[in-house]
Amino acid sequence: ETGVTQSPTHLIKTRGQQVTLRCSSQSGHNTVSWYQQALGQGPQFIFQYYREEENGRGNFPPRFSGLQFPNYSSELNVNALELDDSALYLCASSLDWQETQYFGPGTRLLVL
Amino acid sequence: DQQVKQNSPSLSVQEGRISILNCDYTNSMFDYFLWYKKYPAEGPTFLISISSIKDKNEDGRFTVFLNKSAKHLSLHIVPSQPGDSAVYFCAASAPGETSGSRLTFGEGTQLTVNP
């Protein structure tokens, strides 16, 4: 059984650019959640997608947006990148929206 | 407002001894709690969870204790092994709230188990 995968593993962008991060959920899982982890902190909830619909959102500005596809994979898009967006972005999938979340390895984003 | 706090940034124990990691929370709506372990360059790995209707849950070497009146939970690892060296995150959830089943994480505790 394949676990949660994310791409790319590392990314360098400049301020003002846009970025798209991708996540493939674990087989059979219909829910994907995205988190941002800054250095030395715990992950912060960005949003959750359940059966292709947004199912909750954390305190992130609208320039953070997402999608979930019919196969339950997901994208996180960030527009107008700022230096503070530099972080590890984690995707987690779960069997259903209230079930245990299993994390992928993350995408390390550096904004210069 | 830090709703989940892990007050010890680091903990060092000898192999074979008990490791106790602590976590406090402030939001009384939390009713499900989890512990994750994270190695460098990897995502968090789920370890063990507990529902608020229980006060203890055990899985092999790992036991989680929940004290609802004190809003405190702890993770016990017995016996500790060098491979347990990692950052441990406590997380809490209030399933059913309108904002989805978001996890609120603590800042993490770096556990080092010395051979």
Could you walk me through the main structural features you see in this protein, from its secondary elements to its overall organization?
The complex is a heterodimer of chains A (112) and B (115). Chain A has strands spanning 5-7, 10-13, 19-24, 31-37, 44-50, 53-57, 64-68, 74-78, 87-94, 102-103, 107-111. Chain A is mainly β and 112 residues long. Helix content of chain B is 0%, strand content 52%. With 115 residues, chain B is mostly beta strands. Chain B is globular. In chain B, strands 2, 4, 5, 9, 10 and 11 form a six-stranded mixed beta sheet that branches. Chain B has a five-stranded antiparallel beta sheet with strand order 1-3-8-7-6, with no helix packed on it. Chain B contains no helices and eleven strands. The model of chain B has no long low-confidence stretch (mean pLDDT 93). The interface between A and B is medium-sized, with 30 and 26 residues.
CA-atom Rg of chain A in angstroms: 13 Å
The fraction of residues in strands of chain B falls at over 45%
Shape of chain B: globular
Structural class of chain A: mainly beta
Could you give the distance between the termini of chain B? 38 Å
**Shape descriptor of chain A:** globular
> What is the mean predicted local confidence, pLDDT of chain A?
94
Largest interface: A-B, 30 and 26 residues
Number of helices of chain A: 0
Tell me the number of strands of chain B. 11
